[in-house]
Amino acid sequence: MIDLCKEIARMGRGIGNENRYRIIETLMKGSQTVGDIAGKVGMPQPTVSQNLRVLKEADLVVDERRGQEVYYTINVMYMTKLLKRLADDVSKSGGKKPH
User: Fold this and answer.
1) What is the C-alpha to C-alpha distance for residues 91 and 61, in angstroms, rounded to an integer?
2) Domain-located, residue 48
3) Which of 8, 54, 68, 90 is deepest in the core (most CB within 10 A)?
């Protein structure tokens, strides 16, 4: 099993940049191509592609080829699982729940 601290750190590196967070925010509206994302976040396509590579390496986004286009989507399954593990660990350590 991969250490939770390492996974959280990897997630942090993935979104630890304003441009990558803007891309994640854009992808919250659904699957999109590099061109779609670039137009919405106001960055050149090569910059978006570089940031998507970092997000993919952190498992925060996945891609799917549809014909000649590649669509990027938030890896909801991975993020949910990771955040649930974090919440479970906090719960086990005696963290207080909100009222």
Assistant:
1) 27
2) yes
3) 54
**Domain residues for 61?**
4-91
* SS3 of the chain: helix, strand, coil, percent, to 5: 60, 15, 25
Structure confidence by residue, pLDDT tens digits, 17-68: 999 999 999 999 999 999 999 999 999 999 999 999 999 999 999 999 999 9
Structural domain includes residue 47: yes
Residue at 99 is within a domain: no
Number of neighbours of residue 76 by Cβ within 10 angstroms: 12
DSSP letters of 50-93?
A: HHHHHHHHTTSEEEEEETTEEEEEE-HHHHHHHHHHHHHHHHHT
Q: What is the pTM of this model?
A: 0.81
Q: What is the CA radius of gyration of the chain?
A: 15
Query: Is 69:51 a contact under the CB 8 Å cutoff?
Result: no
Q: What's the pLDDT tens digit per position in 2-14? A: 588 888 888 888 8
